[in-house]
Amino acid sequence: MAVNRRFVLPGEAGAGGQGGRAGTDSTRTSVFAAILAEGSLSRGDVADLLGVAPSTVTKAVTPLLADGYLEETDAARTPAPSLGRPSKRLRVNKARHAAIGVKICQDRLIGVLTNLRTEIMDHRLVRLPEHSPGAVLDAVCELAATLAASAPADPDHVLGIGVGLSGHVDAEQRTSRHSALLGWNDVDVAGEVGRRTGLPTVVGNDVNALVVGQRWFGPARDCASFAVVTVGAGIGCGLFLNGGLYTGTSGMAGEIGHVPVQPDGPVCNCGRRGCLEAVASYDAVLRAIEARGGPRCHDIDEAIDLARRGTGPDAAAAAAAFAEAGGALGRALAWLYNMLNPEKLIIAGEGVKAQALFRPSMTEAVRAHTFSTAARDCDETTILIDDTDWARGAACLVIDAAIGALELGPRTPGAPAARP
Fold first, then answer.
1. What is the CATH classification number for the domain harbouring 30?
2. What is the pTM of this model?
3. CB-based burial of residue 381 (10 Å sphere; 0-12 exposed, 13-18 middle, 19+ buried)?
4. Is residue 413 in some structural domain?
5. CA gap 109, 104 in Å, rounded
6. Which end of the chain has the smaller Cβ count within 10 Å, N or C?
């Protein structure tokens, strides 16, 4: 990620401080990342977690404490104090830096200012009258400036800006290659925002941003391989494989929304027929209710209410539309299970609120199409997320890029995990 300035931990090579060998810098980063993800750890806990000597932890922690990146908490009491002195715990000084996260939606921007643990300090919503790249990026820069102004006055306090949006995002090139929802092609998002704001800027697919957030602070902290599938206005998927975010050759990995599940199905917004997104997204369900003779529902909440509380043919049409969406989603998930055999699957998004309506058919399709124990091997978790969670994910991109924890490498079988 090319940036205007970069975050460096104390003693990192090139920081102008103590300097040090690459191995020392890597250990310091690992220690910092582990404490950030866990919330608080004793020095012994860190040593056990990373599989290093306690003296190595002490050497890494000393400059982090001196420079205010870590702080010591009150001593942790042992069940039997007579067995020895209680050890103090270390935690990240979460106020040391802030990050800005912006989620670009079809009709709005959601922006947050967070601390290092992505706890929200300020948040804003901006309506978008149009989708043109120029107008949207103008609004992103203005929103970022507003959020930055609410941070402490130190110009280095804000680490940078993370921007999340749907579609094919090439994070290395900092570009939105194609977003069907926005109608964008080859838009230099990070370059333009970074140039105009003067802040380091990273752009990523919005679901990949959620993956980073779940790895740092969510239920996937202990997983070497997991997937996040989002259900809502679109159907997305992000992958964390063998210890690292997997985005493919050019950032397109995980486009489960465009896996064909009905060859003769409806036309997708990508122009192809029968994609999962054309069958299981919000709009697809609303269209399917009408196609079955039901009423025109204005939004997914109205459709859910119709399926749950309605009567007669209208309610039946709504229930059938959700069941069809669930079956399509289940077939796609079966493909995911069979191909990747992940430790954990996180189903997330606003669409989770309808899970009681689509889950039975989804589960039936998964069972029908998974091979051997592929589905049973995977721990499935469902989380409902809102607009600010998407923006927090974008802020997580900034924190992750700054600390570089996901570059620590895959978990070695039989060895302790060096993990964020």
1. 1.10.10.10
2. 0.84
3. middle
4. no
5. 5
6. N
Residues 361 and 259 in one domain: yes
Distances (CA, A) of 222 to 90, 242, 385, 418: 20, 12, 21, 10
Question: How far does Cα 389 stand from its chain's mean position?
Answer: 9
Domain range for 206 is: 98-212+389-401
Half-sphere exposure in the Cβ direction for 33 (13 Å, CA): 27
pLDDT tens-digit map of 63-89: 999 988 999 987 555 454 545 555 789
Residue 396's contacts (CB-CB under 8 Å, 6 or more residues apart) are 99, 101, 118, 162, 209, 212, 213, 216, 217
Q: Residues 347-396: pLDDT tens digits?
A: 999 889 999 999 999 999 999 999 999 999 999 999 998 889 999 999 99
The values of phi and psi at residue 154, to 5°, are -55, 120
Of the three residues 52, 73, 93, the one that is the final residue of a domain is: 93
Hey, CA dihedral for 159, 163, 169, 175, is it positive or negative?
negative
List, in order, residues 6 or more apart from 323 with CB less than 8 Å away.
357, 358, 360, 361
Structure tokens at 419: 């993990």
Those residues with Cβ within 8 angstroms of residue 302's Cβ, 6 or more apart along the chain or in another chain: none
Query: Are 205 and 228 in a shared domain?
Result: no
The gap from C-alpha 330 to its chain's centroid, in whole angstroms, comes to 22
DSSP string, 3-58: -SS----TT-TTSSSS---HHHHHHHHHHHHHHHHHS-EEHHHHHHHHT--HHHHH
